[in-house]
Predict the 3D structure of the following.
Amino acid sequence: MNARTRWMSLIVLCVGMLMIVLDATVVNVALPAIQDSLGFTQAGLAWVVNAYLIAFGGLLLLAGRLGDLLSRRGVFVAGLAVFTAASVACGLAQNQAMLVAARFVQGVGGAMTSAVILGMIVTMFPGPREQARAIGVYSFVAAAGGSVGLLAGGVLTQLTSWHWIFFINIPIGLVTGIAAVRVLPADDRSRARTGLDLPGAILITAALMVGVGTIVTPTGRYALPLAGAAVLLLAGFLVREATARNPLVPLPIFRSGTVSGANAVQALTMAGMFGVFFLGALYVQHLLGYDALGTGLAFLPTTTIIGILSLRYAERFITRFGARTVLVPGLVLIAAGLALFARVPVHGSYATDVLPTMLLIGTGIGVSGPALATLAMSGATTEDAGLASGLVNTTTQVGSALGLAVLATLSAVRTHVAEAAGTPHPDALAAGYRLAFWCAAGLVVLAIGLALVTLRPRRAAATAPAEQPEYATAGL
């Protein structure tokens, strides 16, 4: 494959990824409109996001393995088709059940599409410098797509209605699917289909769904039994993977401290970040009085900085200093931004209370995102690149879903307690948001500590390049 074809393929993959990431956040700005239209409670409203994220996170590993066994291009294109069809159903939804169910199917399509992207990138770009540049582009799309989604959601909700945040996926999905068939290299494989671990996929998906349901409704009388069921399902998944002939996730992959550490850091970081995007959008709307478009524009500085750093400087930083060295300062900036956001007043100002946070978080993501992706894929081989890619995306989506569930629940409980004590509603809302933002900052601080412990630079800098995968030598 020549260089022109590789970079055209990267563009197609990134457009597909952008559509998936956008849809994970584009609904955030439209949530108040969706709540008014369909009558969701605040706790129920989180399931408009969580239904998507749980299906996404639960099926990413299976989708990645399907790509390894059958065809990464085929899984990518099939996922686009499922995602686009589900978008139509979301846009046509007339009640809560229909929207949540359609969002779940969207998550299935999203998992199929995104699970194989990193695996295709590391196989198409084997050279360290070229791969670092390609991962920088991917990381920009994956990270900045969240804040772009807030802007897109604001524009569409403001100018049309919330239904169009889903309908807009139809032309994008169709064009991307056609381009994928024409541009992406054919990679049909002849490995046996007995390698598919459907029981493992069912167990991990069920564990995730039950676990998040427990977190979203922590005070219900079924909370303890549900938590126990989630633990049993997860244990069953681990037993299955340890004994299956062709496991969904070969457990030896976690023996690599770099791979395990990078994925754990990713999960903690995303748990803090995604909940803040969700609650931050509500803060600027409910307390600062922004409309949907204004809310999207409020997050635009984050996207701009992520783009500049990911596309222009990430490859240089990683190549020169190494991914481990670059990662920690980026996480520190994210934690600082979240801690600053935790000071938001009831009658705040965008320039002093929101913009500094956007700048710090954008800088932190632009620096740490490509470094984390590079580390998480550092142990992948050509044969298991799809699994490694699916694992990266799984930790991202699971961290996002659990973070959203925890932070949204903590915020709602704190607000309820404050109102019960006689606190005015705006002050009670602010108290709930501040608690969630402090917890988000704490999650990223934990990620920093974990990175320092598990992602130590190799002392044996003299390790021969021939002993490592070609694409694992980019300053790791």
